[in-house]
Structures are given as structure tokens and as C-alpha cells.
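Box 3.1 A note on notation
Throughout this textbook, protein chains are presented in two layers. The first layer is the amino acid sequence; the second is a C-alpha cell string describing backbone geometry. Keep the layers aligned when reading.
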Amino acid sequence: MLQSPPAEPGAPEAEIDTPALVLDLDAFEANLDHMAALLAPTGTKLRAHAKTHKSPVIAHLQMARGAVGQCVQKVAEAEILAWGGVPDILVSNEVVGARKLARLASLARITRIAVCADDPAQIVAIEAAAAAAGVRLSVLVEIDTGAGRCGVAPGPDAVALAQQIAASRHLRFGGLQAYHGSAQHKRTPAERGSLIAGAAEGARRTVEQLRQQGLECPIVGGGGTGTFLFEATSGVYTEIQAGSYAFMDADYARNLDEAGQPVATFRHALFVLATVMSAPQPGVAVLDAGHKAVAVDSGLPTVWQRPDLRYAGASDEHGKLDVGSETTVPKLGEKLRLVPGHCDPTVDRYDWYVGVRGGRVECLWPVAARGAMA
């Protein structure tokens, strides 16, 4: 059920009802601009990942800065973006099941839609859905770049799938999906660079073998917030699929640069605003933001600009703060910003972004694809 907005435009940030998903618009816009500026000299295009933001509003802001489109993980996410006017969408994932594929194929009537495959049987099913809908779908072959998740082996196995796609009357070969997810959170640039070098080599080899068979590879897609510059400067990748860069989270902030310092490429823009609901004893305060308010799969949130406060643990509705010995316990009713450990699943807990600038609410945007899992 869509919840009522936690604030109204013009209200002070202090009056936002909590827990609330707050977007610092200055930091958010700076992140969008910075990514566009970093990619411009490389010639690599951004296909921003909407699994992070789940919002046609944000998708259009990214495309206004040069993104060629969006990628998603689920058909339901693609539907929300397509209905919101996004003109170019890649489901950067496999889709299995006749009903889902029928929904996917129907979107080709209102937007440019593509999907990934890593098995001959998937291609047969996608072809059947496209034929039934009277459309032609673009299909990318996903290769395993080293993460050991989805994807066929680079080289001959990938070429065979591409040939199967190209031979279909209802499909077109769209390129390669070559995302290395586990590389994104390796802490040192040497680790990240080494893994992406391996991924790029597998993709490069496959592109060359495709050309030897007379198949051009329009897209080589991958890359994320942790590694995008490695892919963008590889000479292989044509599209970058970063998503978290727009918001940043506490886990990405743990990645290090060449000097061994936390990477500061992008600013924290997404917060969970929480209220101190109890201060029962010295050294302890309790917030109204627990497991249901903030994802903890990538670590506990941090308290924004309060190194003296540590978010020590969560239960369903409560977040416990440990307070430094020389710090005054936050007062009952005081509001604090939390930086989520993982922005994507945190966003999926909320119906609304509350956009703030200069201490006041400027806008409210629906998290339109919240819960879009099918």
C-alpha cells in the first residue's frame, strides 16, 4: 500500500516524519554531473542501473546528462520505467517463465527493450514470446566474467549462443553482458583492477571470435560504481551499468584509492532520517529505524557527520546507538541522518524520496518500482 508522504514541499527537514528516505539534492545532482564528466572523455556510455533508484524521475535526470538508457534486473522494474517514458531499457538478467516473457515482449511496443540469456533453452523461449507478440527483441549473451554467478563461458560457448540469436526471425543479437559484480567491493584498486582486466580480456576475446564468424557486437555492457573507470578505459566496454554512484552508501565508501584512503569520487546523497525515540541510560540512545528501515546486509549504517555516535545494532523497529564517553546523549526527539550500508535494498523499503535542499523539503518523488520483484 502506498503510504502518505512523510513531509510536504517547503517544510523544514526537522519536520519530516521518520523513518524517511531523504535525498540531498545538491549531493545527488553533483554525483550525476560528475559521472557524466568522468565518462565523457572515454567515449563509453552510461546505462545507469535502475535497480538502485527504482524511479522514472531519476532515470530521466540521468538521461538528461547523457545516459543512453537504463538497465534493470526484473521485468516489473522494466514495466515501471517503460510506463514512465524511459525509451531504452535492458533487463541485465535472465528472464525465465512464459508469463514474464510475454510481459517483456509486450513492452517492445512502447520502448526499446533488451534481455540477457546464457542458455539455448532461454533463447528458444524468448523467441517464442517475441513471435507471439509480433515483435523483435534484442538479446545479449551474458558471459561469466569471473564472479561465478550467471553467464556462459567466454569464447566459443558465447559465440554459439550469439549465432542462435542471430539466426532467429524474431530476435537480434544485441551484444555481451559482462558484469563482474564481486569486483565492485574489493577494497584496493589493485584488486579491483586485476579482476576487471580479466573480465575485459574474456570479453575482448569473445568479441574477436564473434567478428570471425561475421557477427558484430553492438554492446559490451558491465561495470559498476566500484570499477567503472577500469571498464570505461579498457577499450572493450561500450556501456557502463553503474547505479549506486547516484546515492553512495557506507559499503562503497569503504573502497580505497591508490593512496589507501577512502574513495571520494562521489558524495553521500541518500540517507535514512531517524528520530531518537528513547534515551534510557547513559551512553545509549535508541532510534526509530531498525531492520525495517535500513538494510544491513552490507553492514550497519553510519551516523552522518557524527563520528562520536555508533549505530551498534538493530531489531525490527529499533536502532541502538552507542554514545562516546565524552559525548552528550542525543536528546529525545532529535533527528539524525543514517548512511545505509547498502542503498539498493534500503530504497526498496520506502514509497517516497524526500528531496531536501538548504534544510527544506523541495520535492517528493515516488519510489515507483518498490517491491518490483517479478
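Residues 189-212 form the longest helix (24 residues). The radius of gyration is 22 Å.
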